[in-house]
């Protein structure tokens, strides 16, 4: 991955009307960081923004924020303005082309629309965080994310339980599949379908 610690994009990357690194730099290098150093790493699909020295939990409640290409830059600015001061890691679509792909009819329905993925750790009130993100993006356009539960009807903010870091298990068919631990500590499939499928026994903190 290309490490971009708050600097302009590489010279060999074509200019884009949606440039996550340029949009994030005022937040990750400004006073709002609370003294934290931030790292931004990008590949062709995603730009990951995270505090230096932080470590993601293995799994938990992910918050997704959807967007259309027209509103992507504004939504990223609003979301970054909330997450960076709190020190919460997130990833965002790496280019305008990627944003368009996420809302295209050809994209995998279980992953479509996930413009920003937020990785809260256990130190944050998830319902309060989702409410703040919802209020910040409430009048902006974005699609429904089919794999998730909307935080509120019509909200761009959605959530699901899943892995933050890869924990694949080799199945009987010889194919590795993503997993999470259920409430009893057993490894179960990290189900990624175009409908909401939370693991059994894990309470919903957003309700």
Question: Gist?
Answer:
The protein is α+β, with helices and mostly antiparallel strands and 207 residues long. 21% of the residues lie in helices and 24% in strands. It has a single domain, classed as Phosphothreonine lyase fold (2-Layer Sandwich).
- The CATH superfamily label reads phosphothreonine lyase
Low-pLDDT regions: 1-16
What is the helix fraction of residues, given as a range? 10-25%
Compute the CA-based radius of gyration: 17 Å
Distance between the termini: 37 Å
Estimate the strand proportion: 15-25%
Give a structural overview.
By secondary structure, the protein is of the alpha+beta class. It has a single domain (about 1-165), classed as phosphothreonine lyase (Phosphothreonine lyase fold, 2-Layer Sandwich), CATH 3.30.2430.10. Helices cover about 20% and strands about 25% of the residues. The protein has 4 helices and 11 strands; from the N terminus they run E-H-E-E-E-H-E-H-E-H-E-E-E-E-E. It has helices spanning about 20-30, 70-85, 95-100, 125-135; strands at about 1-5, 40, 45-50, 60-65, 90-95, 115-120, 150, 155-165, 170, 175-180, 185-190. Strand 2 (about 40) and strand 3 form a beta hairpin. The longest helix is centred in the middle third of the chain and has 15 residues, at about 70-85. It is globular and about 50 Å long. It starts with a strand and ends in an 18-residue tail after the last strand.
